[in-house]
Amino acid sequence: MKISKKVAGIAPSLTLGIDAMSKDMKKRGMDVVGFGAGEPDFDTPEYIKDAAIEALHAGKTKYTPASGMIELKEAVCGRYERRYGLSYDPDQVVISNGGKHSLYNVMQTLLDPGDEVIIIAPYWLTYPELVKIADGVPVYVTGREEDDFQPALGDIEAAVSDRTKAVIVNSPSNPCGCVYKTGTLKGIAEIAKKYDLAIISDEIYDVMDYMGQGGTIAGVSEDAKERTIVVNGMSKAYAMTGWRIGYTIAPKAFAKAMGSLQSQMTSNPCSISQCASVEALHDHADLIERMVGVFKKRSEMMYELINDIPLLSCRQPEGAFYALVNIKEAIGKKYHGEAIDGSVKFAELLLQNELVAVVPGVAFGAEGYIRLSYATSEENIEKGIGRIAEFCRELER
């Protein structure tokens, strides 16, 4: 059976592939340290599980409205009111089957063939694929490491054309852990206003802003709020990756269109997951703060250990749970006679020989880097980075 050109051209998720490979090696008894996973290593809090059990016993097992339960939409609005002081109407909210599905809905609803979307590199690897699936064109702007991966506003404006429809903002960032400064957010919002662009703001890591220096771009001005499509979900902040609940907040007409699209695709997300998410979004700040505190401590540990290794370096992560490690000095060297010509070969040799799984930076538009997730124990961080140090000691010219 012949596969369509569109689907045949989709690049598989390298992060999921490496995580699956790492787990398979562990099942075969190999002592693999995995730095590839993009999910918290914490269990879902008990109060959320209890809400799901209660919903099951109460018979909340039927269809809900296709765009989500009103109770969950109201809880989302309440969260953004408490956290950012932003007032939204439940009609602006669409509940979907995870953040990826939310982004898919956005791209399909926003883009016509040939429309361009500005993507700031390093970027989450799914953005370009979702743009292309919607017959759009990704246009890349690179944030430089010496600027802590903050994008230059002049570069963003230079990338705008008469086909540009939107710009994607992801702060805190996957993969580099940077948090966009308020000035950067205001500058992007001004460019969007000048050229009448939509802003797609992926805020899935918003609680993991260690310095509290960022915020939502929707909050910088009333105009920014009106043109921003917020994308968020339950996976990261509430350790609910498997529950598959994401959401968008958008202008009412756009949200209604996304709801119509979703009604013909998946219908509603899981009713039980929605009920649990309502309870999750009630104010349990103490649990989230404890989790974020653990991630911050791990980020500091990883930063110090990586920067003690000759040939490698990384910036101090400011949010999310990733470190983007510069391996440029290792490229061109050999490991036991085998040349390292880029981040993919570095990651392959590291996994094969030292049993450490990392994600090549090329997947994120960042060749010359590897991404490490510190959503794992301090013991694993110390052990895994010790192995990376040993790997680097074996490199030769």
The CATH class of the largest domain is: Alpha Beta
Q: Kindly give the count of domains.
A: 2
What is the number of strand segments? 16
Mean pLDDT: 96
Number of helices: 14
- Distance N to C terminus: 48 Å
Unreliable stretches: none
Q: What profile does the largest beta sheet have?
A: 7 strands, mixed
Proportion of residues in helical segments: 40-55%
Q: What gross morphology would you assign?
A: globular
Output the structural class. Answer: alpha/beta
Describe the structure.
With 397 residues, the chain is of the alpha/beta class. It folds into two domains: 137 residues, Aspartate Aminotransferase, domain 1 (Alpha-Beta Complex); 238 residues, Type I PLP-dependent aspartate aminotransferase-like (Major domain) (Aspartate Aminotransferase, domain 2). Helices cover 41% and strands 16% of the residues. Strands 2-8-7-6-5-3-4 form a seven-stranded mixed beta sheet, with helices on both faces. A four-stranded antiparallel beta sheet has the order 9-10-15-14. A three-stranded antiparallel beta sheet has the order 12-11-16. Helix 5 runs parallel beside helix 6 and helix 12 packs parallel to helix 14. The model has no long low-confidence stretch (mean pLDDT 96).
